[in-house]
Amino acid sequence: MEFSKIGVVGCGQMGSGIAEVAAKAGLDVVSREVSDDLLAKGKAKIEKSLGRAVDKGKLSAEDRDAILGRIKFTTSLDDMGDRDLVVEAVTEDLQVKLKIFLELDKACKPETVLASNTSSLSITELAAGTSRPDKFIGLHFFNPVPVMKLVEVVKTVASSEEVTDSAKAFAEKCGKVPVLAKDGGGFIVNRLLVPYLFDAILVYQNGLATREDIDNGMKFGCGHPMGPLELNDFIGLDTMYYIGLILFEEFKEPRFAPPPLLKRMVQAGYLGRKSGRGFYDYSK
Ligand code: 3HC
Q1: Which of 17, 88, 168, 228 has minimal Cβ neighbours within 10 Å of its Cβ?
Q2: CA-to-CA distance for 164 and 160, rounded, in angstroms?
């Protein structure tokens, strides 16, 4: 089973990146958003990302145009009908995702494999709403998608071996390193990363050190590209909060509970980089 026609539902931070790397790999891509406005914003993200590579002399203008030419932008889910693989990358909300998969299940040909880029929801639960749990898998990319080399391929008890192998081959074709995980809360990376990022917030909340010193500690002491408070801001504080709620619900362990300061910041509209304010000020 080889995936050559790819659909990506959602053209935000993650979806635009997935569409970009798939088109870069020479695949035929359909990218879908709910409105023309969001579609234009998603397309601009892809253009900006490819533009960086052109500016640095790592991609020619012709190749950039060819990559963009391989992506069809649409607001209709019906355009996913002929796809071999459709990756959903919409907001981290179970009900929204379940509804999309119900619609995709109807719109797509029977052979289409459906995948979710969810970071923390159960792949098994998302698959159960469709008529094809054997052709359903998790494909968890990392932000920024064009840069981060990892894709978690998440297999449920129902995912077929053929679909799992094809999903790994797709990730490799997109230039990524696939790792295989079972459908357990947070898979591999977020199960380890989220308690660490929450601990950094607790350390800051408790006044142990300044935000800069906490971040510098991990950057210069452990070689991380970003400190934990910077990384919380980068992922998005609302996203971190919702991932924490989902993982706490699954494990009932305090290390997954969103810290009170994180909750207050989200309530105040401090969502990190995307809102211009989080642990740091990005308004300038
Ligand atoms: N899109 C495309 N390319 C980008 C990019 C973006 N948004 N951001 C950076 N780049 C590229 C640059 O063009 C540059 O490319 P080059 O090496 O070919 O010249 C390269 O990445 C490095 O960028 P910069 O020099 O501008 O900046 P930095 O060296 O500071 O790197 C970073 C930026 C790659 C974001 C780095 O800080 C980093 O790796 N941070 C950690 C990110 C991380 O941990 N992500 C995972 C988050 S967890 C997650 O996604 C899971 C979810 O479920 C929560």
Answers
A1: 168
A2: 6
